[in-house]
């Protein structure tokens, strides 16, 4: 799920709500200093209205759960959100997923009310699978066993109900509850039903492995290109660029090169995309003018596939073309700059910095092309990029991008250790906290206290704790 700050209602970066929505460490510290009622209201706003750009990449649940504990905040707001009649009308995971994850962390901290809410929602809620996954790693066997009859009541004893049960068991992220229910000696009917579902799920997976869709051994280059075209012409459209390119890698030989070059210059989008990608991945010297022509095509599918093909290229020739194309103010130019940021040399730093400044000026601090450029500024130690990196760190609504900015600042900004690195110890992202644990100055008393708390927090990630303990050990020796 991707959304702009406007769509998600992201508040200004200097406000308490804006800081908490972004998951910044300063948000945590400001919340503790603010009037408690104001802090709790801002916290609930974040948990009940997920502010993340991409909930699959960004983390907030542990950050918010820790703040619930620190503020001694009640869970009435979350309870009302989960019980709202809208839950039956909007069953998408995004509406309740963050709240359920926060409850999961609170349950791991020993909050009995959070555990009760998770159990109740697993029985009554639309997004019950998420709640069940949280319980699978937090609840004990007895608690899970008691849920079995209630969960199975969701699946009527009909052909459709049994098929739905089989799919739920087969596709479950955390299988532990299903196995507990299948082994429950006190409920033989439930046990038999789940044993069948588990067996049918295993059989379904086996059948799918035996009958993979798509091209089969013996297909020709023409057959693969036709298969890509057929998918493009279907309703709904199936874009088979990547699988078709993998198939071409298996069937194409030197004698097929003229046909592939012709397809890469043709006007059929799917065949053109597959051929371009295949030729680019093999570093064919004649693919560069084809990529340039494709990137300028009016058809957005062709333009996108040409840029994607170039992004997958390696070697000196690709870098040479990236240096020529990086000044372009289009998608191909952005891709070329990203390539230099990821694999270029120190001499490419001015091109990377120019592209970074242009992206922020043109598309703002949440521009999708920023991540590789920010990483590249750090990798190439572009010290003159520190001001724009600080701006991105403060303003972006993506905690994922902010983490990359923090790592780049650690390599480019001498003030990082005594500045942003300190607040990063409270950041919502694990990798950002790890960077802070390695760089934050221990002259600040808050840093030492925070390191000690992270070292003993059972919910903290292993990588962070390793960095924290190493830092504390170094300080003790020093």
Task: Describe the secondary structure blueprint for this structure.
Elements: H1 5-8, H2 16-22, H3 25-33, H4 36-48, H5 61-71, H6 76-83, H7 86-89, H8 93-108, H9 112-124, H10 128-138, H11 141-152, H12 159-170, H13 176-182, H14 188-210, H15 221-233, H16 241-251, H17 257-264, H18 269-281, H19 287-295, H20 300-311, H21 316-325, H22 331-343, H23 349-363, H24 370-379, H25 386-395, H26 399-412, H27 420-424, H28 430-439, H29 445-456, H30 462-477
Helix pairs in contact: 2-3, 2-4, 3-4, 4-5, 5-8, 8-9, 8-10, 9-10, 11-13, 12-14, 13-14, 15-16, 15-18, 16-18, 17-18, 18-20, 19-20, 20-22, 21-22, 22-23, 22-24, 23-24, 24-26, 25-26, 26-28, 28-30, 29-30
InterPro entries: ARM-like, ARM-type_fold
Protein name: HEAT repeat domain-containing protein
Organism: Streptomyces litchfieldiae
């Amino acid at each position: 799920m991707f959304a702009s700050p406007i769509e998600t209602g992201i508040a200004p970066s200097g406000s308490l709500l804006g800081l908490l929505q972004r998951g910044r460490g300063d948000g945590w510290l400001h919340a503790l200093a603010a009037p408690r009622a104001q802090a709790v209201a801002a916290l609930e706003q974040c948990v009940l209205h997920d502010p993340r750009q991409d909930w699959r990449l960004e983390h907030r649940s542990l950050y918010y759960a820790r703040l619930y504990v620190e503020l001694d905040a009640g869970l009435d707001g979350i309870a009302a959100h989960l019980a709202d009649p809208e839950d039956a009308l909007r069953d998408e995971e995004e509406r309740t997923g963050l709240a359920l994850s926060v409850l999961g962390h609170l349950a791991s901290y020993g909050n009995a009310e959070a555990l009760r809410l998770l159990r109740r929602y697993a029985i009554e809620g639309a997004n019950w699978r998420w709640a069940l996954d949280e319980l699978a790693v937090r609840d004990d066997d007895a608690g899970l066993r008691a849920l079995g009859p209630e969960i199975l009541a969701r699946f009527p004893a009909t052909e459709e109900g049994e098929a739905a049960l089989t799919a739920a068991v087969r596709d479950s992220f955390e299988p532990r509850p299903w196995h507990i229910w299948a082994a429950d000696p006190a409920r033989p009917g439930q046990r038999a039903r789940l044993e069948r579902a588990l067996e049918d799920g295993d059989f379904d997976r086996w059948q799918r492995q035996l009958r993979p869709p798509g091209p089969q051994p013996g297909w020709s280059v023409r057959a693969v290109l036709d298969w890509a075209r057929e998918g493009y012409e279907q309703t709904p459209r199936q874009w088979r660029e990547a699988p078709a390119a993998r198939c071409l890698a298996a069937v194409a030989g030197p004698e097929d090169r003229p046909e592939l070059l012709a397809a890469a210059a043709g006007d059929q989008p799917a065949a053109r995309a597959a051929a371009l990608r295949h030729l680019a991945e093999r570093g064919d010297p004649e693919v560069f003018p084809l990529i340039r022509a494709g990137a300028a095509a009016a058809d957005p599918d062709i333009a996108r596939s040409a840029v994607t093909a170039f992004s997958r290229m390696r070697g000196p020739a690709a870098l040479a073309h990236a240096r020529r194309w990086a000044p372009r103010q289009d998608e191909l130019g952005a891709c070329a700059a990203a390539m230099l940021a990821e694999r270029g040399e120190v001499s490419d730093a001015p091109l990377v910095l120019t592209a970074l400044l242009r992206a922020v000026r043109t598309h703002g601090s949440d521009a999708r092309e920023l991540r590789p450029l920010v990483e590249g500024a750090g990798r190439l130690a572009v010290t003159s990029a520190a001001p724009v990196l600080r701006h991105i760190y403060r303003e972006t609504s993506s905690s994922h991008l902010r983490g990359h900015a923090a790592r780049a600042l650690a390599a480019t900004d001498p003030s990082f250790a005594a500045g942003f690195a300190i607040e990063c110890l409270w950041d919502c992202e694990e990798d950002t906290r790890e960077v802070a644990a390695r760089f934050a100055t221990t002259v600040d008393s808050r840093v030492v206290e925070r390191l000690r708390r992270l070292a003993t927090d059972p919910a903290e990630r292993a990588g962070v704790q390793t960095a924290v303990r190493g830092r504390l050990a170094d300080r003790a020796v020093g």
